[in-house]
Amino acid sequence: MRQLGELEAVIMDRLWDWGRPALVREVVEALHEDRPLAYTTVMTVMDNLHRKGWLRRERDGRAWRYEPAHSRSAYTVALMSDALGTDPDRRTALAHFVLQMSPHDAELLQQALDQVRPPAEPGEAS
Amino acid sequence: MTIGAILLAYAALVGTLGARTLGRARWTSRAPLLAIGTYLTAAWSVLAAVGLAGLTLAVHATALGGGLSQLIGACVIRLRDLYATPGGAAVAGFGLTLTGAVLARTAFITVSQVRAGRQQARQHAQTARMIGRPDPALGATLVDHPQPAAYCVAGPQPTVVLTTGALAALNPAQLDAVLAHERAHLAGRHHQLVTVARIARQVLPFLPLLRAADAQVTRLSELHADDAARRSRDPGLLATALVILATPATPGPALAAAATDAIGRIHRLLGPAEPPLGPVRRHLLRAAVAALVLTPVLLAAAPAAVALLLGRVPGA
What we know:
The complex is a heterodimer of chains A (126) and B (316).
Chain A (H helix, E strand, L loop, with lengths): L1 H17 L3 E2 H9 L6 H13 L3 E6 L2 E6 L3 H13 L9 E3 L6 H14 L10
Antiparallel strand pairs in A: 1-3, 2-3
Chain B lengths: L2 H22 L7 H30 L5 H6 L2 H9 L4 H44 L1 E3 L4 E4 L6 E4 L5 E5 H6 L2 H16 L2 H14 L4 H23 L4 H12 L9 H15 L8 H34 L4
Parallel strand pairs in B: 2-4
Antiparallel strand pairs in B: 1-2, 3-4
Helix pairs in contact in B: 1-2, 1-9, 1-12, 2-5, 2-8, 2-9, 2-12, 4-12, 5-8, 7-9, 7-10, 8-9, 10-11
């Protein structure tokens, strides 16, 4: 299960890098050097990715050509807006080290740090 | 006076004044976990009191008024005075409705909260793993984004997410402290504590204590994770990392309350050390927590227990 999840990420990586629709066979060949995988394994994983909405596909003769449904940067934007969003009810499952602040608030935080931080040892600067 | 009214008064009292009492208490930041326990217990004690109040009002008009009274005998008259309320059927109907509404609301909100939280966690962790790359040395998933951010996703696949912005901005020692803080969130199952508080708030959103509990459990879980991280690391690393990660790389969403809480954490990390709570105060607080658990139950059960006891003692 864990390995399949990792394989999903590897395959998505390749398809994002290529930026064009690809056949299962092409993916198998591209991955062969790093990890020789059975055609059916790759096909199953890509079919799963299609079912989960990560890949879209269209017919090419008797095979399918797959490509990512959205660009990597689109997913990144969505992920970060989920993570950095301001709706606390959307953040139950996430625990941040600290939330991003306005520049003004961040400045206040810096001042608070400067006030309480013990002054640097004289020898520290050298 | 009826037991039902006493229970409702208890809920109103704890539900309103409890927020101020706990909000003013200075010990909460010295014992964050105990404070989380106190907030959660108080919040659920209020919910239980409202639910039991309804049940008590209903019981008066049905079971104790009818068949059970013959078993218990004459004492039920005295008992009735305790439970007694005018307009039997109407009160019983109101009581049942109240209990039913609280139970149904709690059940519905619990299911939808837990389900939504799990789904968000699964989806978020999966997306992070797909677009990011695992860094086994750090035990985190790296996501390519300029905003410095570090957070963890609870759920079936607990994941610590770190942006490349955070990786670039923090030095290795700060990074190690931040990761220790995040792992403490996961190890302490803080997301579950937050969920328990959020459910209570959503059942009775108008009570100040339940709103306070939701906000405070989140804040206190940060303090608890800070404590876990500083146990083996220099607190200065956490304090400086706080400023770095709070500073926006680009203008983005910002939360008003975030600054106050973060400044509080800096003072706590680097200010004059607060002595830990002594054993006596800890025991007293634990006793108070136990009292919050027991009060609604005892209030609701006391008259019935007394009646059963008296009913069995001949001539009582």
